[in-house]
């Protein structure tokens, strides 16, 4: 938690200061989470030590970071920019929202880890928080609308403390504690992980384009060309990935969900965002504060995220409708959604027996759906 707070705070500030220059929060990438999980499962079946798997993941983060930095600094990212049409970006945002909705709902109902039955008290509180944030963001006036998410989290936390089961974590006795470098050990480089990191770099580019495009719709703060904004954001993203590797965290990326929070709260100021990022990075050095924040109940946090993703669904449709949806585009969209979302319902054993590098790709519905739309758009010309 400490290292993640630091990396998220530093990366968000770098992007808002030198990168895209929008109030877009960085955070652990869902695509990297899936790679961590899949590689962990494969490594366990192959008898690998957990430490070895984590060091291979550190190497993969470094490879992705170096490639992103190279694409941004050389401007080569412009050559692949034309493939990210509104249809591709809109499909990415829509599949992302639908994929994470299942994760958020499970979290709201307390279905995490080995738990197989929902906790109905927890679920009731979480759905109340979801409804509260949604209503306040629509009907609220002034500061109430701006702080709808924070008010919902605080209210839900209080209710959870009264009716739920708050867990307590022991806090560190030291006032200030510096984060550990390469906490998982020295990075290791694996051919399968390297190939996967190279392929996932293009998904990370798509993620960045989607985040910038979504936020530009709700906070048009700059008149700069999209190429300049993207170039800066990509090479800063490379630096963020290298920082993620150094501090042993999941790779961080600009979160498209930021557009939903901006629309919910109406807050668009970059200076305030920079201050918040610096505060978050500073908080990471104080163990007692990190411990307190980590006590936020998972169901309440998931309810707040789901409320933001209500806006994400709308933004994805707005992106898709930037071009007319003729028969060709509707067919491509349908194929991408059906196959991408369909993969989410396949059992984990469906991809057993194939190389690990392919498992990373084929088991990720977001990646498969986006790649299918990209290929069909390029091969099936108007």
UniProtKB/TrEMBL annotation:
The membrane topology term of the UniProt record is: Multi-pass membrane protein
Q: Which UniProt keywords apply?
A: Membrane, Transmembrane, Transmembrane helix, Transport
Transmembrane annotation, as ranges? 59-81, 87-108, 120-138, 144-163, 191-214, 234-261, 273-294, 300-321, 330-351, 357-376
Q: Which domain of life is it from?
A: Bacteria
The subcellular location is: Membrane
Q: To which protein family does this belong?
A: Belongs to the nucleobase:cation symporter-2 (NCS2) (TC 2.A.40) family.
Question: What NCBIfam families is this protein classified in?
Answer: NCS2_1 (NF037981)
Q: What is this protein called?
A: Xanthine/uracil permease
What organism does this protein naturally occur in? Answer: Paenibacillus shirakamiensis
């Amino acid at each position: 938690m400490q290292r993640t707070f630091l990396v998220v705070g530093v990366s968000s500030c770098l992007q808002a200061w030198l990168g895209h220059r929008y109030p877009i929060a960085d955070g652990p990438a869902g695509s990297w989470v899936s790679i961590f999980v899949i590689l962990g499962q494969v490594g366990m079946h192959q008898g690998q030590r957990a430490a070895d798997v984590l060091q291979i993941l550190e190497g993969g983060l470094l490879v992705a970071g170096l490639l992103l930095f190279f694409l941004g600094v050389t401007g080569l990212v412009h050559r692949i920019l034309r493939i990210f049409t509104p249809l591709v970006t809109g499909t990415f945002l829509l599949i992302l929202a639908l994929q994470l909705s299942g994760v958020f709902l499970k979290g709201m109902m307390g279905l995490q880890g080995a738990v197989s039955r929902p906790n109905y008290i927890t679920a009731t509180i979480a759905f109340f928080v979801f409804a509260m944030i949604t209503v306040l963001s629509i009907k609220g006036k002034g500061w109430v609308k701006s702080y709808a998410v924070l008010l919902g989290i605080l209210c839900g936390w209080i209710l959870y403390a009264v009716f739920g089961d708050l867990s307590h974590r022991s806090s560190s006795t030291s006032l200030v504690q510096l984060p550990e470098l390469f906490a998982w050990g020295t990075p290791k480089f694996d051919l399968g992980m390297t190939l996967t990191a190279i392929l996932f770099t293009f998904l990370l580019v798509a993620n960045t384009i989607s985040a910038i495009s979504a936020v530009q719709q709700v906070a048009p703060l700059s008149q700069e060309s999209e190429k300049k904004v993207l170039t800066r954001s990509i090479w800063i993203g490379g630096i963020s990935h290298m920082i993620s590797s150094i501090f042993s965290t999941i790779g961080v990326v600009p979160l498209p969900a930021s557009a939903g929070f901006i629309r919910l709260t109406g807050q668009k100021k970059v200076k305030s965002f920079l201050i918040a990022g610096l505060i978050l990075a500073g908080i990471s050095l104080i163990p007692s504060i990190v411990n307190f924040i980590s006590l936020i109940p998972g169901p309440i946090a998931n309810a707040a995220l789901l409320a933001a993703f209500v806006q994400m669904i709308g933004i994805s449709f707005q992106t898709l409708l930037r071009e007319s949806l003729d028969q060709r585009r509707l067919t491509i969209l349908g194929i991408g959604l059906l196959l991408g979302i369909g993969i989410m319902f396949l059992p984990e054993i469906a991809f057993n027996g194939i190389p690990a590098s392919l498992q990373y790709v084929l088991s990720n519905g977001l990646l498969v759906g986006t790649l299918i739309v990209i290929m069909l758009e390029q091969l099936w010309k108007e």
